[in-house]
Amino acid sequence: MSTSERRDFEERYSACFTDFALKTVTGLLIGSMFGGFFLRGYRRWPMYIGGGLGFGRAYSNCEDSLNTFLLSKEPRPCVIKKKP
């Protein structure tokens, strides 16, 4: 990989961590608000479901982003060097 390709991959990879954090926290907050306001009391299961949905969506976005980057490159043959 050249340096510009490596930098692009690293930027996509670090953006995945930011996306994981934002979507998981947002899902937890929306789930806790749903549990608090609409279910008349503090319940934890909507918070867990919201966090899981946010985490799953972030994982799907990250997988798509990295796969499109990696599959756009030309494949190179794998060469195994023999030890003398």
From TrEMBL:
Entry superkingdom: Eukaryota
Recorded GO CC terms: MICOS complex
Transmembrane segments: 20-39
Chief location: mitochondrion
Keyword Cell inner membrane in annotation: no
Localization per record: Mitochondrion inner membrane
Keywords in alphabetical order: Membrane, Mitochondrion, Mitochondrion inner membrane, Transmembrane, Transmembrane helix
InterPro entries: Mic10
Record-linked Pfam families: DUF543
Lipid bilayer topology: Single-pass membrane protein
Keyword ATP-binding in record: no
Family under the similarity heading: Belongs to the MICOS complex subunit Mic10 family.
Function: Component of the MICOS complex, a large protein complex of the mitochondrial inner membrane that plays crucial roles in the maintenance of crista junctions, inner membrane architecture, and formation of contact sites to the outer membrane.
Subunit annotation: Component of the mitochondrial contact site and cristae organizing system (MICOS) complex.
Protein name per its UniProtKB record: MICOS complex subunit MIC10
